[in-house]
Amino acid sequence: MIQSKILTTDTTLALGQKKIMQKSLVTTKRQHVPLTYQEKLIGKLEKMVREHLTEHLTIDSLATHVAMSKSGLYRFLKKMTGSTPGRFIRDIRLREAVFLLQSQQYQTISEVVYAVGFEDASSFTRLFKKRFGKSPSTYVKSVSRRNTEGKGSR
After folding, report:
1. How many domains does the chain have?
2. Average pLDDT by stretches of 10, the chain with 154 residues
3. Locate the HTH araC/xylS-type domain: which residues (predicted)?
4. Whole-Å CA distances, 105 to 97, 109, 115
5. For a Cys staple, 134 with which of 45, 124, 138, 145, CB 3.0–4.6 Å?
């Protein structure tokens, strides 16, 4: 009786480990799955936006770049990302601004604003705060503080 309980427990453990192994194999295999056409298309759109950050990008130019109509691009982005084309562009610009603020490549926030294609600092600040929960200047201070604390602990 005791031996059968041990056997059952061992079998259960072995099955549990087998399931874990299968999950990790699935995860490992998933990393090598080629991108879908939709994922490639979104990547192509993101690349275009990043390459033309400082320019006035239009939805027409994005649609033309991926051989879609404006309405087709709108439907595609809404379905795949939940964003409109305008918000898609704006989100990429804001993420790029975060990267530039973290890297501290620019002296002022105004330089970052224009480097990522916004036309005025006040709308940038409003959108940044809405998206990330803090103003760009507060964000820069927190990044600076983290960098200073990181260097001091070495």
Report:
1. 1
2. 47 44 44 84 95 92 94 96 95 96 92 94 95 94 79 54
3. 43-142
4. 11, 10, 11
5. 138
**Is residue 9 in a domain?**
no
Residue pair 130/123 in contact by the 8 Å Cβ criterion: no
Task: Yes or no: say if 122 and 115 are a contact pair by the CB < 8 Å rule.
Answer: no
Q: What is the DSSP letter of 53?
A: T
**Of 91, 88, 68, 64, the residue nearest 78 (C-alpha):** 88
Give helix 85-103 / helix 70-81 axis angle, nearest 10°: 60
Q: CB under 8 Å to 112, separation ≥6 — which residues?
A: 97, 100, 101, 106, 136
Domain with 81 in it: 37-144
Residue 130 maps to a domain: yes
CATH number of the domain at 84, please: 1.10.10.60
Q: What are the start-end ranges of the H helices in 2-120?
A: 2-31, 37-51, 59-65, 70-81, 85-103, 109-115
Is residue 136 within 8 Å of residue 114, measured between CB atoms?
Answer: no
